[in-house]
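Practice problem: predict the structure.
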Amino acid sequence: MRPVTEAELAEAVAGARGPLLVRGGGTRTLGHAVGEVLETSGLTGVELYEPGALTLVVQAGTPVAEVDRVLAAERQRLAFEVPDLRGLLGREGVSTIGGVVAANASGPRWVQVGACRDACLGVRFVDGSGTVVKNGGRVMKNVTGYDLVKLLAGSRGVLGVLSEVSFKVQALPEAEATLVVEGLADEAGLSALRVALGSPFDVSGGARHSGRSLIRVEGMAGSVTYRLGELTARLGGEVRTVEGDASAALWRDVRDVVPLQGKPGDIWRIATLPTAAAEVVARLDGEAVWDWGGGLVWLRLDPGRGAEVAAAVAGRGHATLVKGQGGSVFPPEAAEVAALAAGIKAKFDPRGIFNPGMMG
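Answer:
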């Protein structure tokens, strides 16, 4: 099924007689969900764009590339830096903005501006009964009640099918530059990232791979130059500066996990304490791309090492198998958390038709 209006989407859900596999462009799907495919890619188009108010409202099936083009024409962007994981996961297709929100897909700038959910102002979605629900709006404000925007972002379609999302957007900076720190072992290289991110110099990226630590600064040209100088004085190792398009290319590689693309083995996404990141990787002895100052680790391992990964991150994070065969994709939940999640699921999808098996 591929509805092209919100009314058609609601009708399709209300009339469903079995499980539905909710899908945008199919570029971020994880888990073992089954059912009749319900595509949102027919719901396309920009509903409202006010550059002066930094506000964008767009239908959920709109391609991310189209959103980027619209914003770039006004020298603006989605601040949370949407990852393109097709190369990593071996997928084709077109990434949709609803899929981005459903996965809470967030790139290296998370350390400065937060995740996708932090940029979402409002959502419209269809719940398991076929009812259209609206939450949030077109401006950021504090209200009482349930924040369904935050709940839907990252829910991977198990609570409802997104039909429209609204965002606060960001102006493109005047300048961008990256400090590349070489000559440091992993622990020291990650420590350099933590020093930079803990400084007052508004770092917008802290990552490491291939023996290099990367520290990004963006903003007005004069400010960028000043902050680069101050940061360089605080870092060890061999430091060089990369600017402009060359800097942007470095961060596309981090964002899309290019160093691990096209290589054999399982790919794990590990969220952990930045101070524990080097130890976790050393214990598992895999090839890593560290982002978020070490708080996010993309790790390539031989297949079948799920139990070792779980033991390595126990008590200090969680791991998701994003590419590989067999076993559970998502980490197990504590009994209390699982009960809470089941209760929420029952409220929004009482028939249990949305993406059954997705989180298993």
